[in-house]
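Researcher: Here's the sequence for the chain we discussed earlier.
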Amino acid sequence: MVSLKVRCAELLILKFMSGCSFVCLCFLYQGLAKTEKTKQKRYIALFDKMIPDYTLEEIRHSINRAWVLGDERFKQQIKKQTGRRVSPLARGGGRRSKEYRAKS
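Model: Thanks. This is the structure I predict for it:
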């Protein structure tokens, strides 16, 4: 199961990339719990710990290149919904190989 923090990060990235309005964040908040008190506790708990540097770097890298950040299942959902690639194609290749020349 995907943690709440990971799902929040995925939704925030999607919000940023899609230009989604504040409604996305409000929807996320509403989904934290059924009671208002529990929602508030869970929302505050999202910010209890510092985000590790490597995670921030992953987020920055994805945003700067407009790629989707998340697990493969999430990426496939976004790919299906948007009809566009969610990660870069493999780079390079053996230009002297028969397979590469056959594709050209």
